[in-house]
Automatic annotation (TrEMBL):
Catalyzes two sequential steps in the biosynthesis of coenzyme A. In the first step cysteine is conjugated to 4'-phosphopantothenate to form 4-phosphopantothenoylcysteine. In the second step the latter compound is decarboxylated to form 4'-phosphopantotheine. In the N-terminal section; belongs to the HFCD (homo-oligomeric flavin containing Cys decarboxylase) superfamily. In the C-terminal section; belongs to the PPC synthetase family. Keywords: Decarboxylase, Flavoprotein, FMN, Ligase, Lyase, Magnesium, Metal-binding, Multifunctional enzyme. It comes from Paenibacillus piri. CTP binds at residues 99, 109, 125-128, 143, 157, 161. It comes from the Bacteria. Its EC number is 4.1.1.36, 6.3.2.5. The keyword Hydrolase does not apply. One of its GO terms (cellular component) is phosphopantothenoylcysteine decarboxylase complex. Residues 11-223 are annotated as: Phosphopantothenate--cysteine ligase. This is Coenzyme A biosynthesis bifunctional protein CoaBC. Binds 1 FMN per subunit. Residues 6-215 form the DNA/pantothenate metabolism flavoprotein C-terminal domain. The lineage of its organism: Bacteria, Bacillati, Bacillota, Bacilli, Bacillales. GO terms for molecular function: FMN binding; metal ion binding; phosphopantothenate--cysteine ligase activity; phosphopantothenoylcysteine decarboxylase activity.
Length: 223
């Protein structure tokens, strides 16, 4: 049945935004609400999967019936994901991971002094790319938020990060992207566009995506 399509499968989902500390009371983050990733975690649970959610900063209520691991930084998210990678059948990276973090994290609150101050940032590890290069049998799904040249950037990302599916959303479109309850996505595999979905609730998008995942892992894809 559709309900049990993912029964016995271990699904690892990342959601929310990462928090990159500047000092004990300040941080850099982004507008991620966590809603898309949470909807995926809930839907996978409803389809019978054993779900672990690696959750960053989010405004949406945390789903029930899934194991939640709360983290702050991209570095912590990377560690949490890698610790559970070998055990996962499916990995879905819906989190908005910061590309950069402060080069140094001050132990004490930074004091106000000069007229100008410079914050130096360094690149964070790319978790999805790391998973893509390490994966054995895991089916890996990446996300991309774009504002232009969606097809081109999506296919480039899918190849570079070695994903099985990539879900791209045009965040300039009405009803898509951060904070909203709906999304407008295009789903790609290594051969190109698989599905262009109309405006849907994030639950609806999660259902369509997980149907594709279930169908494909059923055919033995992922390895
Ligand atoms: O390259 P970009 O950040 O747009 O890639 C988006 C995808 O990569 C998302 O699935 C996101 O969770 C993942 N990502 C990651 N680690 C990063 C940056 C992005 O896993 N440092």
């Amino acid at each position: 049945s559709e309900q049990g399509q993912l029964s016995g499968k271990k699904v690892l989902v990342t959601a929310g935004g990462t928090v990159e500390r500047i000092d004990p009371v300040r941080f850099l983050t982004n507008d991620s609400s966590g809603k898309m990733g949470y909807a995926i975690a809930e839907t996978a649970r409803d389809m019978g999967a054993e779900v672990t959610l690696i959750a960053g900063k989010a405004t949406a209520p945390v789903p029930r019936g899934v194991k939640v691991v709360s983290i702050e930084s991209a570095h912590d998210m990377m560690k949490a994901v890698l610790e559970r990678l070998a055990d996962a059948d499916v990995v879905i990276k819906a989190a908005a991971v910061a590309d950069y973090r402060p080069a140094e994290q001050a132990r004490q609150k930074i004091k106000k002094k000069s007229e100008e101050m410079t914050l130096t940032l360094v690149k964070n590890p790319d978790i999805l790319q790391t998973i893509g290069s390490m994966k054995t049998t895991q089916f890996v799904v990446g996300f991309a938020a774009e504002t232009e040249r969606i097809d081109e950037y999506a296919m480039d990302k899918l190849q570079r990060k070695n994903c099985d599916l990539l879900v791209a959303n045009d965040v300039t479109q009405e009803g898509a992207g951060f904070g909203t309850d709906t999304n407008v996505v295009r789903i790609y595999d290594k051969n190109g566009l698989v599905q262009a979905l109309p405006v849907m609730t994030k639950q609806g998008v999660a259902r369509e995506l997980l149907n594709l995942v279930a169908e494909r892992i059923g055919r033995g894809e992922g390895a």
